Amino acid sequence: MIAFIDAHRGLYGVEPICRQLPIAPSTCHAHVAARRDPSKRSARTKRDETLRPEIARVYAENFGVYGARKVWRQLRREGFEVARCTVERLMRAMGLQGAVRGKTVRTTVPDPAQPCPRDKVNRVFSAPAPNRLWVSDFSYVATWRGFVYVAFVIDAYARRIVGWRVSSSATAGFVLDAL
């Protein structure tokens, strides 16, 4: 909003624009004053400006794998009194993210050569009587020994599972076995 007011202040003036927008003229004037004189900025903004380069430095020194918790701990070891939520907020604003452990599971590998199946119920998952509409889906569950795939068939009228199957591999056969 401040950018809009700055762009149109010469034509309309600050107060008439602020009357139309949900912003007080004093807020606009304070923002402009803080932009001109950095000493008038809030304590949080000043603190953020000093912490941003330190966070970027710690992140870069550790090959871009440290997350907010480890960056926060390293800053504390170096003598910076900073809250972890502040480090999280600044890292999010700077677009920094730590490495994530583990492997992503890809459950569906689409074949662009195959046509997409039609939605035969038009996203209306209700039935007038039992055994008129069955809906099927499958998902995966992480276990200590790896991922387990679960397929299930639900009766749309009763909202109950009428068939299910568990498998260690996601093949079309195990989904059909649930029927």
What can be said about this structure in brief?
By secondary structure, the protein is of the alpha+beta class. It has helices spanning 2-12, 14-20, 25-36, 43-61, 68-77, 84-94, 172-178, and strands at residues 134-143, 146-155, 160-167.
Structural features, described:
Helix content is 43%, strand content 16%. The protein has 179 residues and is α+β, with helices and mostly antiparallel strands. It has three domains: 1-41, no CATH class; 45-98; 102-112 and 119-179, no CATH class. It has a three-stranded antiparallel sheet, with helices on one face. Helix 4 crosses helix 5, helix 4 (43-61) crosses helix 6 and helix 5 (68-77) packs across helix 6. The longest helix has 19 residues, at 43-61. InterPro entries: HTH-like_dom, Integrase_cat-core, RNaseH-like_sf, RNaseH_sf, Transpos_IS3, Transposase_IS3/IS150/IS904. One of its GO terms (molecular function) is nucleic acid binding.
